[in-house]
């Protein structure tokens, strides 16, 4: 077969590229795998053939030229609600300014699914990866290191981590909010949280509540804990459970705003006045916190800045080895009407 | 260099695979590009080498075996809010049941960014693509056809489309809601919509409102239209603009629930009672519609079913040519308190 009878609808193969460039397939392979071992003239011929033929299935022309794909992967635990949306958008915008495309996978908070997605993104040629949280099987980081794929863990700050972390102190942020709650007279505290197993953000936040309680002399065992998946409906179901307990809480501290908004809606449905009968708090300060009725007291996380800094850290690492960026961002309390003084 | 001194931290190359398998790099290339041109024994040797060395950067063992990557790409207009989340989650779950990984890109409603992402996903080896909406430059579909990458367009139903569509009738769905609105006595209608240029879902919904008005004898020019980006804050800003016009609307029909929830929050801030002073409607029936205060009248879209059907249609097309699935899903009106009889 020669170029003349190349079917326009057929995907061009490596062999087609070799034929077009007038080189062997081995030379094309070498260009793809070790461009530095091929002289520039040959590399340019192959590059031209790749462009002309629209050779694409597994490499693109840019990757061929630079041995980079200009693709970054991110794996987030969920796309079902907006908690990662704003940070990820800022992450993507910063990548875009650097000519890099973002591909995202969503792991549904499942460790094995995340590992599968990491393998897929690496095998699809991602130049680097953004992961949410740091705590995971060390083998994952070993694999990425072996593959030469840099990784940044965001939404956490861990000074001892083996990879760069760009995030905030989940423990301290929630502890500050719990201290505020306790200072308003609340002692019957409940929390609705994501499963803490394998989720360092959730477990650190829970630890923050417990630390504030201990410091205030409230027994840790007094904390009612309900674990559920993040979701508006799930927050409502959990709230209902809490309210059928013998000792009802005066405040429900939720692991994020999505759970909190669901809890508030359910509380109203049950005839409770928020915050007169029950205070509710969130975490994240996403858009729904502001328009919640009543507006939600929460922890404000600088999502956009976090996404941008994570992108910068990761781009700096691509093509280099190591990288030890650790960026700690500040969170602030956002006090709104859903939290009130406890009076009974 | 021989296997003995392979640096464990170095990414294995095609040449390493060839050496390990005891074949030439050209044979490895042939295995990767035209496995059917290589005898089984050789293919198995190469496959074993790929596995042993953890050769991954651009191909994985499964792709080598089946010439498929078991990766599907999806490009959605935004991850910033939950409007695509539920459908996409169902899409991913159905792919997962078939051992296929989903990679998602978000185009921020930008045509050129979407085209870049399509090229990236194809060059990263996606077996197929999910796109939102059908209307785009025909060159995009030509490119995908040439590359042999099947595509399904969702969130729309278009019997004349050149590719399978899995979705609903945006025009009819919004027309039904507008008819309901008009039947309640509203004649001063406003709409807050996404930019309709290049967005067939938004333009069809707008056309639905206009058609219902025309049938009811209300001049099309009476419709106040504000175009904005989807977002809670953006819905609020648009509502404020509408309320400073000389002729105030009695109902604001929003292009989606996110805009509507923002419009309601702003209306309350302006001292308006919803629905006594102003009715507001949405589109999608995502979770926030139910917990909105007052709860939101909207169009219910079967997002989960749409995602699942789109995955099935796409999986059926991978490895085959053509495919002409067209699935029309039904939408229903979800009447809640944000819409009331107009009385003045």
Automatic annotation (TrEMBL), chains A, B:
<keyword id="KW-0238">DNA-binding</keyword>
<dbReference type="GO" id="GO:0003677">
    <property type="term" value="F:DNA binding"/>
</dbReference>
<dbReference type="InterPro" id="IPR000843">
    <property type="entry name" value="HTH_LacI"/>
</dbReference>
<feature type="domain" description="HTH lacI-type">
    <location>
        <begin position="12"/>
        <end position="66"/>
    </location>
</feature>
<keyword id="KW-0804">Transcription</keyword>
<protein>
    <submittedName>
        <fullName>LacI family DNA-binding transcriptional regulator</fullName>
    </submittedName>
</protein>
<keyword id="KW-0805">Transcription regulation</keyword>
<dbReference type="Pfam" id="PF00356">
    <property type="entry name" value="LacI"/>
</dbReference>
<dbReference type="InterPro" id="IPR028082">
    <property type="entry name" value="Peripla_BP_I"/>
</dbReference>
<dbReference type="InterPro" id="IPR010982">
    <property type="entry name" value="Lambda_DNA-bd_dom_sf"/>
</dbReference>
<dbReference type="Pfam" id="PF13377">
    <property type="entry name" value="Peripla_BP_3"/>
</dbReference>
<dbReference type="InterPro" id="IPR046335">
    <property type="entry name" value="LacI/GalR-like_sensor"/>
</dbReference>
């Amino acid at each position: 077969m020669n170029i003349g009878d190349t079917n326009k609808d057929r995907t061009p193969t490596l062999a087609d590229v070799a034929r077009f460039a007038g080189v062997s397939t081995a030379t094309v392979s070498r260009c793809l795998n070790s461009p530095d071992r091929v002289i520039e003239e040959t590399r340019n011929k192959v590059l031209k053939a790749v462009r002309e033929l629209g050779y694409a299935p597994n490499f693109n022309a840019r990757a061929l030229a630079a041995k980079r794909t200009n693709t970054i992967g991110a794996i987030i635990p969920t796309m079902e609600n907006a908690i990662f949306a704003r940070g990820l958008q800022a992450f993507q915008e910063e990548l875009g300014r650097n000519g890099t495309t973002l591909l995202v996978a969503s792991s549904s908070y499942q460790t094995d699914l995340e590992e599968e997605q990491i393998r897929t993104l690496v095998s699809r040629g991602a130049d680097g990866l953004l992961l949410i949280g740091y705590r995971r099987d060390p083998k994952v980081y070993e694999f990425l290191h072996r593959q030469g794929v840099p990784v940044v863990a965001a939404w956490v700050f861990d000074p001892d981590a083996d990879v760069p972390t760009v995030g905030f102190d989940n423990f301290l942020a929630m502890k500050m909010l719990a201290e505020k709650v306790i200072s308003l007279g609340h002692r019957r505290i409940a929390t609705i949280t994501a499963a803490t197993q394998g989720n360092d953000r959730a477990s650190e936040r829970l630890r923050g509540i417990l630390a504030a309680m201990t410091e205030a002399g409230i027994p840790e065992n007094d904390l009612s804990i309900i674990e559920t998946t993040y979701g508006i409906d799930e927050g409502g179901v959990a709230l209902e459970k809490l309210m059928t307990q013998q000792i009802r809480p005066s405040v429900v501290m939720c692991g994020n705003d999505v759970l909190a908004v669901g809890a508030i809606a359910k509380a109203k449905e049950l005839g409770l006045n928020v915050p007169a009968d029950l205070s509710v708090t969130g975490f994240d300060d996403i858009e729904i916190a502001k328009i919640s009725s009543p507006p939600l007291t929460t922890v404000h996380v600088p999502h956009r800045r976090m996404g941008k800094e994570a992108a910068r850290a990761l781009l700096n690492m691509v093509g280099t080895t190591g990288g030890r960026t650790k960026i700690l961002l500040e969170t602030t309390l956002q006090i709104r009407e859903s939290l009130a003084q406890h009076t009974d």
